[in-house]
Amino acid sequence: MRVISGSAGGQRLTTPAGNATRPTADRVKEALFSILDSAGSLPEARVLDLFAGSGALGIEALSRGASHATLVEKARPALATLQGNLRQTRLAPQSTVLAMDVFAALELLLRQEKRFDLVLLDPPYARGLHVQVLERIAPLVAIDGLVVAEASARLPLPERIGGIRRTDRRVYGDTALDFYIPEGNDAP
């Protein structure tokens, strides 16, 4: 796995040992960031990467011009890998790592009144966490922000949920990317 483009482009990233973390396939990551680049979503963006694993998505966003990334991961082996990848790419100063459960992190960020331009979530597919997170995420999304949920293509995510609405769904083999914006955003 590698950083595809930007300031850290071409650098190899380490992945945690074992099957507990399932990194986003390079072709899906490439497609996602091509979409985000063409929409102008990355320059100076404040990014929230939930279930960050190795940090590949947050690191890619930082490499392509995001101003800051908050990465949430609770698994110890993944955390060590994530922190090592941030140091290796020299992007650690632009990041905050929250070593905690995603739901505890969401509560903390809400109390801190944080808002993000881009929220990336890629929970374990079989755990049923997509809907639980999507129900809670809207208060953290800037009015012109975007939420991207990576899920199994066989897992239908709701069109509208918790104050956000889906605007697009892209399928890449067994993986789907669902794009959501806040209900108050008038974008198509």
CATH class: Alpha Beta
Instruction: Quickly give the CATH architecture.
Output: 3-Layer(aba) Sandwich
Q: What quaternary form is this?
A: single chain
Name of the CATH superfamily: Vaccinia Virus protein VP39
Strand order of the largest sheet: 3-2-1-4-5-8-7-6
- N to C succession of SSEs: HEHEHEHEHEEEE
Number of domains: 1
- Return Rg in Å: 15 Å
Q: Count all strands and give the number.
A: 8
Work out the helix count. Answer: 5
Can you walk me through this structure?
The structure is a single chain. Helix content is 28%, strand content 27%. The chain has helices at residues 26-38, 56-63, 76-88, 102-111, 129-137; strands at residues 46-50, 68-72, 95-98, 116-121, 141-152, 160-161, 164-172, 175-182. It is globular, with a radius of gyration of 15 Å. The protein has a single domain, classed as Rossmann fold (3-Layer(aba) Sandwich). The protein is built from five helices and eight strands, in the order H-E-H-E-H-E-H-E-H-E-E-E-E. It has 188 residues and is an alpha/beta fold. The model has no long low-confidence stretch (mean pLDDT 92). Strands 3-2-1-4-5-8-7-6 form an eight-stranded mixed β-sheet.
